[in-house]
Please model this.
Amino acid sequence: MKSSFCLIFTLLLFLLSQNICFAQSKEIDSLQNLLKTADDTTKVNLKRRLAGLLRSKDKEKAVEMVTSGIELAKKINYPKGEIESLFSLGIIHGMTGSYPESLEVFKQCLALSKEHKNYEHVYKSYNSFGIIYKQIGDYPTSKDYYLKCIKLVDSLNLSLDITAAYTNLGVLYDLMDEPENAKKQYERALEIYSGSNRESLENIVVSNLALLDMNENKYTDALEKLLKSKEYQESENEKLKLCTTYSNIAQCYLNLNQSKLAEEYFVKSLELSKQLSNKTQIAVSYYGLAELMLQQNKYPEAIDYSKKNLEALNKTGGYKYFMEAHDLAHEIYTSTKQFPDAIYHLKQSVAFRDSLLNETKIKEIQNLQIQHDVYLKDREIKENKLELELMGSYIDLNQKRIGYLSIIALLLLFSASLLYFRYRSKQKSNAMLVEKNILIYEQKEIIQEMNIELEKRMLRAQMNPHFIFNSLSSIQHLINSNDRKGALTYLSKFSKLLRQVLETSINISLPLKDEIELLKIYIELEALRFDNSFTYDFKVDENLDIHNAEIPMLLVQPYIENAIIHGLMPKKGHKELNVSFHESDDNIVCTIEDNGVGMSSKPKESSYERPSRGMSITAKRIEALKKFSNQELVRIQSSKEGTKVTILIPKD
Model:
């Protein structure tokens, strides 16, 4: 009896799904038939609608369809259709976890919307940026875009519904561990909503309040709200939202030790996520199932789900997700006493944790340093401008007073007295002008010194990312080559290098001893990257005071990089690199010699797509150093036997 009921129920579900698919297929066929006879603008709109129907079935076809619509809109000069199609393309990429592609498309949509004053899609683009940056964990940027939505509508008094912006802000404050601010935004969203579909908004708010309860470990309260939200979403067939809701319900059951129900909802979330190609939620579902199996001591199933979680993250996911996934895998393998695998996942977790920390700190330090320097310069210029204006008004006032005195003197004295007072007034004016000129000259020198200092700091801030990104490219090369041991060794040395760079990131110059240490680590990294295919040697003159002598940080590194990449790597046979430092009268002299192919053997037209960013920055830094020396600071001698680069670094 029970099996017969299950068979009938399964058959009904199958017929229902067939009817839904048939209805969608029928609509797609109908739109495709309309495309054959439609005019150009209608074709653009039909292609966009078709892409929306296809995105849950076949992303590639959906992208191809809406892209052809964008090209057609450009060809017939139909900006509205181009804007709407770009927005639709951004949504397709975003809903399938392709965040970089989605951001790029939304940037194009935003620029075009501003150009044609399409404020509705300016608002939508800002809101979409906020959602994507929230998804990838950049909460401050996400918050800025949501606030831009609200500011746009308020400043231009637009008749647009900004309920979504307030709701999204509430979600963001929740993620930023500010539950009170989150609740205020939800309340504000309900307060200003004037549309007819209030039930939908209330469902969104209930879902978000459930997340707040989960964050506060109030799983029973959260479950009650989520089950209510699930019923509404199922009635409205909101599949994308259901992926997340099922997963959250499963998480509540997991924390309430109701394993059977937790597994049921994790599986529901996984199946629906696969149907919609929701890569992020697929990974989340596998993670939840692995955690559930571990809780039940079902270790083989836990290991299987953990592996699937990591496989899913290879398609989407950031450092944070990888770190958590490896933490869970470490816990599972430790529980089963498979210690080599446990140690491997622990190392991976630490590596991703360090990567996440380093990436965040580098961006924060560089952005804050540049913003601080620019702020100080702007403030100084404004203060100087205000002071000059005050001095000008003071001079004008004095000139008026002198005029009045001259008139009184004319009435009281004869022409001799008048000439005398005029002579005295000119003396006073000249003295004031001299004082003013002296003050302006002194201020000009101060501003010039500030400009020089700021230029050095900006070039230094540009140099660090180039240095770090080159090292990251080397790590990527080893990983792609499946050289796991080399990659781990490289990553260890690179972590040490990055730590030294971060510790000295606020300095423009640093002791020569520290610079040599950085260069040695860099060459070690390059040697590892190229399988120790070249030898190298450092020589430092004993008479050179490396502890007190200072040079600009990473000035020499791009020349060493060129010697390795363009001099030694193309050569066959023995490869050798020599770096030396010694002292001359006014300079510290660095010599970089290689026995590579030389500059004359390189092709005239570079095969690279873009010039070296590091060398262009270094050229500017050398130009800045020329202010302290009349000599030619860089000399390059090249032949078939190799290249020799001599760099003169002024001591002052």
Q: What stands out?
A: The radius of gyration is 34 Å. The first helix runs from residue 2 to 37. The first strand starts at residue 509 and ends at 511.
